[in-house]
Amino acid sequence: MKRRFIMLLISVFGFTSALGAEEKGLNQKQQEIVRISAFTASGDLEDLKISLNDGLDAGLTVNEIKEILVHTYAYCGFPRSLNGMGVFMNVLSEREAKGIKDEIGRDITPIPSNRNSVEYGTEVQTKLVGAPVQGGIYNFAPAVDEFLKGHLFGDLFGRDILDFQTREIVTIAALGNMSSVNPQLAAHFNLGMNAGLTKEQINGIIDVFDKKIGKKQGKNAREIFDKIIKK
After folding, report:
1. What is the per-residue burial (b if ≥16 Cβ within 10 Å, else e) of 12-23?
2. Is 61 exposed, middle or buried (0-12, 13-18, 19+ CB in 10 A)?
3. Of 176, 190, 184, whose CA–CA distance to 219 is shortest?
4. Which residue has the higher pLDDT, 212 or 16?
5. Rounded CA gap, 47 and 212, in Å?
6. Per residue in 25-82, pLDDT tens?
7. Band of the pLDDT at 231, cuts 50, 70, 90?
8. 230 burial type by CB count under 10 A (0-12 exposed, 13-18 middle, 19+ buried)
């Protein structure tokens, strides 16, 4: 009887610890978001197909995945975003043919007609960065500043299917699987934490890279993030 009670305590403690670890790190849906975004950014369509199926099986809705693929175009360009969307359409057709009914999910809340994208985007950007963004390249090329504020942070971040934390997971995952974008990856590690991502969650993103995407990408991301948290 005593032995059975001890085993029960060990079982409960282990289950509780596992739940705590998931709460601190990434849940299964978020892990699949990392893979979907990373493989879209790199143009790895075979692995993307697998991750899209896994994402749907994990409970991501069709509209959430559409939005992930829409968001990636701001970082990896329309060609790879559109290729990813094409793969997703095929995945949905194949699943439907097998009798799998995936949840469509809700659409975006209509954006107020009187919302100024640049003004709204400036507020969002300032909140995520932690200070107004100005100077340097933005003075050299004002159009870049306007497009970043108005379109990226105003129009895209203003679509509420994905919250700011999720959009930063998508962004970090995309940048982490691209070459020669370490300054932007470092910046979005900071933006992600300002959006509310914990250090454990960001380490969770890097863990997905190590285990599911590529050791080289995981090593690079971890080195950058370690420098940030040591400052």
Report:
1. eeeeeeeeeeee
2. middle
3. 176
4. 212
5. 10
6. 999 999 999 999 999 999 999 999 999 999 999 999 999 999 999 999 999 999 999 9
7. confident
8. exposed
What Å distances lie between residue 8 and 13, 18, 83, 174, 213, CA to CA? 8, 15, 50, 43, 37
Residue with tokens 């991502």: 197
Residues with Cβ within 8 Å of residue 55, at least 6 apart in sequence: 29, 32, 33, 35, 36, 65
Interval 174-185: pLDDT, tens: 999 999 999 999
Q: What is the pTM of this model?
A: 0.89
Detail the DSSP E strand segments found in the chain: none
> Looking at residues 95-109, what average pLDDT do you find?
97
User: 3-state class of 131 per DSSP?
Assistant: coil
**Residue 110 and residue 159: Cα distance in Å, rounded?**
9
- Distance in angstroms between the alpha carbons of the first and the last residue of the chain: 53
Question: What average pLDDT does range 114-133 have in this prediction?
Answer: 96
pLDDT at 155 over 60: yes
Burial of 127 (0-12, 13-18, 19+ CB in 10 A): middle
Greatest distance between any 2 Cα atoms in the chain: 76
Given a contact cutoff of 8 angstroms between Cβ atoms, the answer to whether 152 and 119 are in contact is no
Say if CB 120 and CB 158 are below 8 A apart.
yes
